[in-house]
Amino acid sequence: PSHLLTRVLLRVVPIAVVLLVIIWLAVRFSAEQTVRQTVNRQLAVEAAYASDITAQNMLSLIAATEILATNELVVNGLIDFEGRSNYLPPFFASLQIPGPAEATITLIDYRGRPIVSNRGDMPDYSTREWLPGVVGGSQVFYFNGDGTLHIAVPVIYSGTPEGGLVVEYTAEAARGMLA
């Protein structure tokens, strides 16, 4: 009888071991697939959420710039050639767009020449490709090659765009705000 038992075990055990290994591999593969699919679904949900938050932050920055462009001092500063030096520099010196990062805010005329800025440097925008769009009444926002965020909106006087308001964030500030 023990000889018979040994023969049965020698024939059954290897088959059982092979079957158990196959079952284990199938369960492991199935579990990995399930985990992978769950992780991918969750990543897609989180990516969509992050994208929505970034879009909302961007829209908020554009809206704040547009609101500032309708400010009476800003609008009047475009047409008041003689008196604007009395009120625009103090106004712009303390000017900030809502948000965690500081932005450079520059008022430009219809040719892209700077009138006043909240920073010491006032770049000339006369050769920028977006200028015709802004003085044509459109808003522009883009990231340049170094990651700097630029937002430009028209400043309208009596229904006509007479210049623009340009807001610029450094690449680091833009990443921090939009992340």
Key features?
5 strands; alpha+beta; 179 residues; rod-shaped; five-stranded antiparallel β-sheet; 5 helices
Low-confidence stretches: none
Instruction: Work out the helix count.
Output: 5
What sort of overall outline do the alpha carbons produce when their principal axes are compared? rod-shaped
The strand order across the widest sheet is: 2-1-5-4-3
Number of strands: 5
Largest sheet: 5 strands, antiparallel
Compute the separation of the termini in Å: 75 Å
Secondary structure: elements and pairs:
Elements lengths: L1 H68 L2 H8 L4 H10 L10 E6 L4 E4 L13 H5 L4 E4 L5 E9 L2 E10 L1 H8 L1
How is this structure best described in words?
There is one protein chain. This protein has 179 residues and is an alpha+beta fold. The chain is built from 5 helices and 5 strands; from the N terminus they run αααββαβββα. It has helices at residues 2-69, 72-79, 84-93, 131-135, 171-178, and strands at residues 104-109, 114-117, 140-143, 149-157, 160-169. β3 (140-143) and β4 (149-157) form a beta hairpin.
Offer a quick outline of the entry:
This protein is of the alpha+beta class and 179 residues long. It has helices at residues 2-69, 72-79, 84-93, 131-135, 171-178; strands at residues 104-109, 114-117, 140-143, 149-157, 160-169.
